[in-house]
Specification:
The chain folds into three domains: 91 residues, Fumarase/aspartase (N-terminal domain) (Fumarase C, Chain B, domain 1, Orthogonal Bundle), CATH 1.10.275; 227 residues, Fumarase/aspartase (Central domain) (Fumarase C, Chain A, domain 2), CATH 1.20.200; 95 residues, Fumarase/aspartase (C-terminal domain) (Ribonucleotide Reductase Protein R1, domain 1). It starts with 14 loop residues before the first helix and ends with a helix. The protein has a two-stranded antiparallel ribbon with strand order 1-2. α3 crosses α6 and α11 runs antiparallel to α12. With 459 residues, it is mainly alpha-helical. It has 19 helices and six strands.
C-alpha cells in the first residue's frame, strides 16, 4: 500500500522501521470517527466550492458505503496500512477513483487525528458517564434498602461511631456523582473542533471550520491552529478523571473485600460475582472487587504515561503524540469493564444486619454519646471525656458492653448519671439523634438519597 507522504521521500522505509512507525494495529479503533470526520470535511469542501459538488457527493457516498461495509463485516481493515487515515483514503480511492484523491484537500493527518481523538474521547466519556449513572442508581437503591441498618463507622479502620449501612453507601454515591461532573466538565473543554488547523499553520483554502464543527456536534473551533494539532490536554484530563473513578471503585472494592470476609461478616455477595478455590471447597472469593482494585494501577499508569509523553514536546505536532492512544484506550476499556460488573455486583449484595449490629455493640462506639450525655448534664466535656474513657477501659477489661454496666457502677464515676443513660446510648438512639444535615439518621439519609436521585435525573 502506497504511503500518503510519498513524493519528497521515496515512500519506502526499512521493514523494521515501518512496523515500528505504523499505528494501524491500534488506531483502527478510530475508523468510525475518521470516516464521519471525513464526511463532514467533504461536505465542507463542496459547500465552499473548494472541490466540485459532484466530487463532494461522490466522496460522501463512498465514505458512507465504507461505514456500511465495516459494520456488516464486508470490509476489514488492512493490517498492512500505515494508519487508519491511509486505509480509509485508499479504500475510498479504490471505490470512486480520482475524486477520492481530493478528500485530503485543506487538511493534514495532524488535524485529522486530533479530530478523530476528540470525537472518540467525547463518545467514550459520555458512555462512562452513563455507566456511572447506573452504578450510582444501584448504590442509592441499596442504601435505601439498608438506611436503618446500624453498623460501625470507622476511622483508622477502628470502630468509631454508629452509622447506618445506607449512610455509608450514600457516601460513595457522592464520590461517583463528582466523577460524573468532572467528566462532563472535561467534555465541555474538549468539545472544540481542531479540523482546519491543517499541519500547524492553517490553510490557504477558503474553508468553513465552523460548518465542520457544527456538523460534528462541536460547540466551536480551536482558535489557534498550532494548539489545534498539538493539544492533548483533554486526554490528560479524562485520563485523570478515569484514574479518580478507579480510586473510588478501588476504595469501595476494599470495603467489599473486608465486609465479605469471615472476620467482618457484614455482607454476602451474590454467587454470580464470586469464585471458588481449586483446592479449598469452603472458599467464596470476592474476585470482581479484587480485580477492580488491582486494575486501578494500570489506569494510574495510563495517566502517568500520557503526562510523560507530553512533558517536553515543542509545538506543534510530534510523532511522540502517537503514544496518546493506546494508554487512553486502555484506561477507557478498563473503566468500562469495571463499571460494567460493579453495578450488578452491588445489586446482589445482601447485608447481614444482625452481625453488623452485634459488632457495633462490641466496639464501644456509643462512647461519644455517653460523654455527650454527661456534657448535657452540665459536666464539662473534657472531664466527661476522661470519665467515659475510664469506664471504657474497665469495661474492656471485664469484657462487657456499656449497656451491660449496672447503674450503680456508673454513679460511682459521676452523680450525673441516671437511668435514662441506657436509652441515650442505645445504638438506635445514637443513630436517630444525628439529624444534622448530612448525618446518619434515617431522616437525614432519606434527604441525601432524594438529593442523589435528583442529581441523577439531570444526566
Amino acid at each position: 500500500m502506497s504511503k500518503l507522504w510519498a513524493g519528497r521521500a521515496s515512500g519506502k522505509i526499512n521493514e523494521a522501521a515501518e512496523s515500528f512507525n505504523a499505528s494501524i494495529s491500534f488506531d483502527k479503533r478510530l475508523i468510525t470517527e475518521d470516516v464521519k470526520g471525513s464526511i463532514a470535511h467533504a461536505a465542507m469542501l463542496g459547500k465552499q466550492g473548494i472541490i466540485p459538488q459532484k466530487d463532494s457527493d461522490m466522496i460522501i457516498e463512498g465514505l458512507a458505503g465504507i461505514l456500511d461495509d465495516l459494520s456488516s463485516g464486508a470490509l476489514e481493515v488492512d493490517p498492512t496500512a500505515e494508519d487508519v487515515h491511509t486505509f480509509v483514503e485508499q479504500a475510498l480511492i479504490a471505490r470512486i477513483g480520482d475524486a477520492g484523491k481530493k478528500l485530503h484537500t485543506a487538511r493534514s493527518r495532524n488535524d485529522q487525528v486530533a479530530l478523530d481523538m476528540k470525537l472518540y474521547a467525547r463518545n467514550a466519556a459520555e458512555e462512562i458517564v452513563y455507566s456511572l449513572k447506573t452504578l450510582v442508581a444501584a448504590l442509592a437503591d441499596k442504601a435505601e434498602e439498608y438506611k436503618g441498618a446500624v453498623m460501625s463507622g470507622y476511622t483508622h479502620l477502628q470502630r468509631a461511631q454508629p452509622v447506618t449501612f445506607g449512610h455509608h453507601l450514600a457516601a460513595y454515591c457522592y464520590m461517583f456523582l463528582r466523577d460524573m461532573d468532572r467528566i462532563k466538565d472535561a467534555i465541555k473543554r474538549l468539545n472544540l473542533s481542531p479540523i482546519g488547523s491543517a499541519a500547524l499553520a492553517g490553510t490557504t483554502f477558503p474553508t468553513d471550520r465552523k460548518f465542520e464543527a457544527s456538523t460534528l456536534g462541536f460547540d466551536g473551533v480551536v482558535e489557534n491552529s498550532m494548539d489545534g494539532v498539538s493539544d492533548r490536554d483533554y486526554v490528560v484530563e479524562l485520563s485523570a478523571d478515569l484514574a479518580l473513578v478507579m480510586t473510588h471503585l478501588s476504595r469501595l472494592s476494599e470495603e467489599i473485600v473486608l465486609w465479605s470476609s469471615f472476620e467482618f461478616g457484614y455482607i454476602t455477595l451474590s454467587d454470580d460475582f464470586t469464585t471458588g478455590s481449586s483446592i479449598m471447597p469452603q472458599k467464596k472469593n470476592p474476585d470482581i472487587a479484587e480485580l477492580t482494585r488491582g486494575k486501578t494501577g494500570r489506569v494510574y499508569g495510563d495517566l502517568v504515561s500520557i503526562l510523560t509523553v507530553l512533558k517536553s514536546l515543542p509545538l506543534a505536532y510530534n510523532k511522540d503524540m502517537q503514544e496518546d492512544k493506546e494508554g487512553f484506550f486502555d484506561a477507557v476499556d478498563t473503566v468500562k469493564a469495571c463499571l460494567g460488573v460493579f453495578a450488578p455486583m452491588i445489586e446482589g449484595i445482601t447485608a447481614k444486619t444482625e452481625r453488623m449490629a452485634q459488632a457495633a455493640k462490641e466496639g464501644y462506639i456509643n462512647a461519644t454519646d455517653l460523654a455527650d450525655y454527661l456534657a448535657k448534664k452540665g459536666v464539662p466535656f473534657r472531664e466527661a471525656y476522661k470519665i467515659v474513657g475510664e469506664i471504657v477501659r474497665d469495661a474492656t477489661a471485664k469484657g462487657v458492653t456499656l449497656e451491660e454496666i449496672p447503674l450503680e457502677e456508673y454513679k460511682k464515676r459521676s452523680p450525673a448519671f441516671d437511668a435514662d443513660l441506657y436509652e441515650e446510648i442505645s445504638l438506635e438512639t445514637c443513630v436517630a439523634k444525628r439529624t444534622s444535615e448530612g448525618g446518619t439518621a434515617i431522616s437525614s439519609v432519606e434527604k441525601q438519597l432524594a438529593s442523589i436521585r435528583a442529581k441523577l435525573n439531570k444526566y
